[in-house]
Amino acid sequence: MTQHPGGVPAATRSAGQAFAALFRLLKVARPERPIHPHGLGLSGELTRTGNPAAPSGIDWLDNAGVDAVEARFSRSLGLPQTLPDILGLALRVTPSAAGDSPPGPADVLFASTGWRVPGRFLLRPRLDVAGATMTTLMPYRGRQGPVLLGLCTRSLPPGSLASGEWVLGLHWATPSGRWRECGELRLYAGPHPADTPLRFDPLGNQPPGAQAYAWTRRLRKPSYRAAQRTPPPAVVHRPGGRPERPTHRTANAPATGRNAMSTVSQHFSSPPADVWRVIADGWLYSGWVVGASRIRDVDAEWPQVGSRLHHSVGAWPLVIDDSSRVSAMEPGRSLELVARGWPMGEAKVEITIEEAGDGCRVTIAEDAIRGPGKLVPKVLRNAAISARNRETLRRLELMAAGGAGK
């Protein structure tokens, strides 16, 4: 981008200061992270295929290799997941190197935008990562001129990003040119999905062979500095007038990247072990799962991961034979299922049990993941699923209290 003396630099400097002022204002309400307040930590690897036929002019992109990646997915404004928001994916890439002195980590930030010109330079709120495209929004400077990076989803795990592998294609383009694929990014959450404390610095940690333009530094640096400044300790006054430091609590779960599942919870007077005994007996499912009319067979390994429950759904004589498969399980604490009922489709179901006083709290989270059920508007889908699962919890509580499964 050409920098005209006294023109663009002054404009970008003013815009940068304006963004910084906005960030300082947001930090009053969100001291730790004024934007992208809640996230999901991910890890994986980036396989670079290189660009031998049409080099980009950035060494890192033009050479093949495999890089370790730590990442954070988040929603920019922190809006409820039922509302569209600007999606963000921050990558910390550790480039591989054949020499004795490998380059340091590189931080690359992507945001949901359009894919064509001019949409690739415009932020685009999205409800879900499915179908979303992301770019660096501002180009890097390479040997041959400006280079924009983009990510396009190839495949998603069922349910949320925390439930499996997220595969994206890495692309590059000149500001007005066509996209060229140059790699594949694979990301996944750990066994206990959570946010990450990583702080990303795309201006200080740049990919080998890439540089930030001076105008992008003037635009972004003041707001980054404001966002990452350590917040002053808040003071809360007790009724007697003596100040005390507040106790910080995390009230929000990590962003999952997908529409939030329909979730209902209920307190049970029964201990967790009694509830788990009912859940662990596959032959009892038609007694408490609303919609399951009969159980035809249960794998001997149930409820181990990969085992199946063969059931029928519907009311006689209009019943459908299908099965549910265990996709994750922690004995006594949680069970995750992929429940099938074609031609209606498939749903992901997560059941968790937490100790709570003299009993426990049982939670069921569910949503459609494949088939016609996904075509139902989410607000209507959530209402139907929640009503059914509230009755499911009532039945499960009665069976646990009555000693079923012993």
Structure write-up:
This is Polyketide cyclase/dehydrase. Residues 223-267 are annotated as: Disordered. It comes from Pseudarthrobacter chlorophenolicus (strain ATCC 700700 / DSM 12829 / CIP 107037 / JCM 12360 / KCTC 9906 / NCIMB 13794 / A6) (Arthrobacter chlorophenolicus). Mean pLDDT is 83; it is low at 1-8 and 232-253. It is built from six helices and 19 strands. The protein has an eight-stranded antiparallel beta barrel. It has a seven-stranded antiparallel sheet with strand order 13-19-18-17-16-15-14. α1 (8-29) packs parallel to α3 and α4 (272-280) packs across α6. The protein has helices at residues 8-29, 59-62, 214-228, 272-280, 285-288, 378-401; strands at 39-48, 65-75, 87-94, 106-113, 133-135, 140-142, 145-155, 165-173, 180-188, 211-212, 236-237, 243-244, 262-268, 292-298, 308-315, 318-330, 334-340, 346-356, 359-370. The protein is an alpha+beta fold and 406 residues long.
